[in-house]
Amino acid sequence: MSDQSSGRQGVPRLAVFDMDGTLVDSQHAIAAAMAEAFLASNLAAPPVAAVRRVVGLSLGPAIARLAPGLGAAGLAALEGRAKDAFSTLGAAGVEAEMVFDGAIEALDGLAAAGWILGIATGKSAHGLKETLDRFDLAGRFVTLQTADQGPGKPAPDMLHRAMAEAGVEAGATVMIGDTSFDMAMAGAARVAALGVTWGYHDEHELVAAGAARIIAKFDDLHLAVDAMVPRGQAGMGRP
């Protein structure tokens, strides 16, 4: 168990965050990488609005949604070019990502209150490491779950692994994310789902996918998660 949970009374609580669209605004980087990959494949670049719809999914399923007419070989080649594009942009130091205002302060507040922090993201492990290193976030999280470790969102696997690594039960865990995929994953893992409105899917979609609460700014995060998973109690995960 991490030092984040040492000395705390009651049931350990775990807050798992999505990355893209929740902690980090990365839409420009994602759209640019997708456009580069499609153009390299002699395909029209997908509209930014379409790219926004698939953020949160693992790269393979996201590519398949953006290019539904391609066969398996074409999709595999396009996925490979997208991976190359993401790596190229990262290596070039393209500043197309930024941490949302209030995110660092919110993470600090939760950690100070004894919450264990984790990440569950559609990024690859390499992509996540680049983002965490870029913004000096790596040491804040006990568990890091990525799309290349197993089934991605909305399957519950990433949350199952996060809870196992953190030693926290589903009833004391909350998933914080900006897409319906995050909310559906939380439901599948039987954990509380908190939706944020500054990302890629709107409030109605988040609620329809299972969000128990919605917040519109990071200032409201601490009160929201405390209400969903009270200190010293098993919390309000799905029955």
Give a topology summary:
Elements: E1 14-17, E2 24-25, H1 27-40, H2 48-54, H3 59-66, H4 72-91, E3 98-99, H5 103-112, E4 116-120, H6 125-134, E5 143-145, H7 157-166, E6 173-177, H8 180-189, E7 192-196, H9 203-208, E8 213-215, H10 221-228
Parallel strand pairs: 1-4, 1-6, 4-5, 6-7, 7-8
Antiparallel strand pairs: 2-3
- Based on the structure given, which CATH architecture of the largest domain is correct? 3-Layer(aba) Sandwich
User: How does the major sheet shape up?
Assistant: 6 strands, parallel
CATH classification class of the largest domain: Alpha Beta
> Helical percent range?
40-55%
The number of helical runs is: 10
What gyration radius follows from the Cα positions, in whole Å? 17 Å
Tell me the name of the CATH homologous superfamily of the largest domain.
Answer: HAD superfamily/HAD-like
Number of domains: 2
How many angstroms separate the termini? 26 Å
Briefly note the CATH topology name of the largest domain.
Answer: Rossmann fold
> Into which percentage range does the β-strand content fall?
5-15%
Helix and strand composition category: alpha/beta
Going across the major beta sheet, what is the strand order? 5-4-1-6-7-8
Q: How many beta-strand runs?
A: 8
Shape: globular
Arithmetic mean pLDDT = 88
Unreliable parts: 1-8, 234-239
Give the SSE string. Answer: EEHHHHEHEHEHEHEHEH
